[in-house]
Design brief:
single chain; globular; about 250 residues; about 45% helix; alpha/beta; Rossmann fold; seven-stranded parallel beta sheet
């Protein structure tokens, strides 16, 4: 039997990269999947799922807007009859600048999406998971939830916050049957890295690859596999953790 047969899964930031890989993987494992994205890219992933015979819907959502998040969760429950699993993956990279010159507007936007967005999603999702008798949430954090990185103050602060939020919510909800964990990827070959020039410039790519003892970038499917495991019954005794998927980056 497929691991998520008859399960209802919500994936935010599902239009590209890790979110796309996770949405496709959950669908292959039998889940009914709501694919959310701030752009229309979720519709493209929806068509991929449907072409493979999966059951899915898509909806636009800016996770930094409370009303958007509430509408997304309500639409998921209305479409499929409940909610069993959420992968809170939506995030943005922000700008690259030293802390003392980091633009306030950029700081506020990164925190709004990457940290407040996860909080808003969990706040809306948890009651529905409890109503189903339990479930699982996986938040997408980062290696920068574990370590610092120069010129990425907002992203680093937000991802540290996601890990703290994950731990607090996990403790609160463990007795209610809801497990809450995070995945912590290193540099993954996604459109986010491409926008920063880290995969399109050969020199930059080589430098980033060299940061990882495994000497390559991660693949979205590798992070999705970790998220699916954390969300599955195979991880039934795992809650409140931030699982590194980092090619050895943090071990150095």
């Amino acid at each position: 039997m497929r691991r998520f047969e008859n399960k209802i899964v919500l994936v935010t930031g599902g239009g590209a990269g890790i979110g796309r890989a996770a949405a496709l993987a959950f669908a292959r494992e039998g889940a009914a999947v709501m694919i959310s994205d701030v752009s229309g890219a979720g519709d493209d992933v929806l068509r991929e799922v449907q072409a493979a015979g999966g059951n899915a819907r898509s909806m636009r959502c800016d996770v930094s807007i409370p009303a958007d998040v509430e509408a997304l969760v309500a639409a998921t429950v209305a479409a499929f009859g409940g909610l069993d699993v959420a992968f809170n993956n939506a995030g943005i990279e922000g700008v690259s600048a030293p802390t003392d010159t980091y633009p306030l507007e950029a700081w506020n936007r990164v925190l709004a999406v990457n940290l407040t967005g996860v909080f808003l999603c969990m706040r809306a999702q948890i009651p529905h998971l409890v109503a189903r008798g339990g479930g699982a949430i996986v938040n997408n954090a980062s290696i920068l939830g574990h370590v610092g990185f120069a010129n990425a103050a907002a992203y680093t602060a937000a991802k540290h916050g996601v890990l703290g939020l994950t731990k607090a919510a996990a403790i609160e909800n463990a007795a209610r049957g809801v497990r809450i964990n995070a995945v912590c990827p290193a540099f993954i070959e996604t459109p986010m890295l491409a926008r920063a020039g880290l995969t399109t410039d050969p020199g930059a790519r080589a430098a980033v690859e060299a940061m990882h003892p495994i000497r390559r970038l991660g693949r979205p499917e590798e992070v999705a596999a970790a998220a699916l495991w954390l969300a599955s019954d195979e991880a039934s005794f795992v809650t409140g953790t931030g699982m590194l998927v980092d090619g050895g980056f943090v071990a150095q």
